[in-house]
Amino acid sequence: MALSIRIIPCLDVTDGRVVKGVNFTDLVDAGDPVEMASLYNAEGADELTFLDISASSSDRETTLDVVRKTAEQVFIPLTVGGGIRTVEDVNRLLRAGADKVSINTSAIARPELIAEIADRFGSQVLVISIDARRARTESGFEVTTHGGRQSAGLDALAWVEKACALGAGEILLNSMDADGTRAGYDIGMITAVRAISKVPLIASGGAGSLEDFAAALDAGADALLAASVFHFGVHRISDVKKYLSGQGYSIRTNVTV
Amino acid sequence: MIAILDYGSGNLRSAQRAFERSGVEVVVTSDRDVALNAAGLVVPGVGAFAACMRGLINVGGDEIVRARVAGQRPTLGICVGMQIFFRDGDEHTNGELHKGVGVWQESVSKMKAPILPHMGWNTVSVTGNSNLFSGLTDQSFYFVHSYAAKAPVGIAQAWTTHGEKFLSAVEDGAICATQFHPEKSGDAGLALIKNWVAML
């Protein structure tokens, strides 16, 4: 047997609730984070990701509480992203029970943050989240900020290389063109990033059909992250894993022992 | 009572909750007497080998582990907590080795694999008579690491392959260790923890 592919539901959290928008607008309430984490754990999720989309610092305190409660009840790895700007922010989240943190905009603004976090806690806690889209840059892909609305002025592949050199433990690649469309992952983008990185790669954005998940794995993704298809019951995690297992991928069977 | 040794290695509250699921009292402590006298001692560990070893020495943890080994008191190392039970490790050095506690006279070295860290769920293959994996066939456990021991030590072993075959668990009398995180391995991890608690 080999390392299993991972299916990771992503829960966008604000003010203690889970929300998910299509292309990051039109947010719809999809439930209570701790309940959803337990449910996804029971369904065979291999990890969980919370993305804190809070606008205010008081909401961020609520998120720490959500992390704390979840980590005490659900015994699978938990990644938390959103609003992390300093090593101290990372420390607070890890102390609340997060296993990994993902950083995005703050690493673009100050790349040394990657090395600071990796030096203090190890690369294994650090996921670099990249919101990328097709553009006329050297590689054909650019990094965006503000939920895909603005160009960061960075070539996506150049940024992947730099982030890995600074100590990224994992890359979360989110296609802003595909996000929320359910029209499939951006396979070209996954292939291009896989070719230049030696850390685990999580593909995100665009999951719709079962075949979409398989295509992203064929392109070199180690893990697949999705939100709306799981939250709104388009697919159940157990069905995705059953399908992938049938296609010959190594999956973790969630046998109750 | 089980003690989880707190030497500055991350959040231990979810680990505490996972061990409590076995129905035993669990304390997170850096107190020498509590750690020495607990029915079972858990030595966790995340981050780099040398940093973990420094933290361990700061609370006298190296002496606590050696004393428990000498007295054959149940002790469980997890992840880097397993690695520092070995003689030495070469993490983040140019050939220079960091000293471990030295329960086992073998080394920990970087894994040879195309993608590192080895991150995610993988299966184990058990050799020898294992109590830890009793009733746990074909289960996956959660790994996050780039370094590992590759030589057999102890009485029973578990092996996992990522790029190359490495030691994913050891049982050596009262001393056990897992390279994976049982406290993050869902139901299979909780069952393994229960097996360990049953051995105390």
TrEMBL record, chain A:
It catalyses: 5-[(5-phospho-1-deoxy-D-ribulos-1-ylimino)methylamino]-1-(5-phospho-beta-D-ribosyl)imidazole-4-carboxamide + L-glutamine = D-erythro-1-(imidazol-4-yl)glycerol 3-phosphate + 5-amino-1-(5-phospho-beta-D-ribosyl)imidazole-4-carboxamide + L-glutamate + H(+). One of its GO terms (molecular function) is imidazoleglycerol-phosphate synthase activity. GO terms for biological process: L-histidine biosynthetic process. Gene3D superfamilies: Aldolase class I. SUPFAM superfamilies: Ribulose-phoshate binding barrel. Pathway: Amino-acid biosynthesis; L-histidine biosynthesis; L-histidine from 5-phospho-alpha-D-ribose 1-diphosphate: step 5/9. InterPro entries: Aldolase_TIM, His_biosynth, HisF, IGPS_HisA/HisF, RibuloseP-bd_barrel. Pfam families: His_biosynth (PF00977). Keywords: Amino-acid biosynthesis, Cytoplasm, Histidine biosynthesis, Lyase. Belongs to the HisA/HisF family. Heterodimer of HisH and HisF. This is imidazole glycerol-phosphate synthase. It comes from freshwater metagenome.
UniProtKB/TrEMBL annotation, chain B:
It catalyses: 5-[(5-phospho-1-deoxy-D-ribulos-1-ylimino)methylamino]-1-(5-phospho-beta-D-ribosyl)imidazole-4-carboxamide + L-glutamine = D-erythro-1-(imidazol-4-yl)glycerol 3-phosphate + 5-amino-1-(5-phospho-beta-D-ribosyl)imidazole-4-carboxamide + L-glutamate + H(+); L-glutamine + H2O = L-glutamate + NH4(+). This is Unannotated protein. One of its GO terms (biological process) is L-histidine biosynthetic process. Pathway: Amino-acid biosynthesis; L-histidine biosynthesis; L-histidine from 5-phospho-alpha-D-ribose 1-diphosphate: step 5/9. The keyword Metal-binding does not apply. It comes from freshwater metagenome. Pfam families: GATase. InterPro entries: Class_I_gatase-like (IPR029062), GATASE (IPR017926), Imidazole-glycPsynth_HisH (IPR010139). Heterodimer of HisH and HisF.
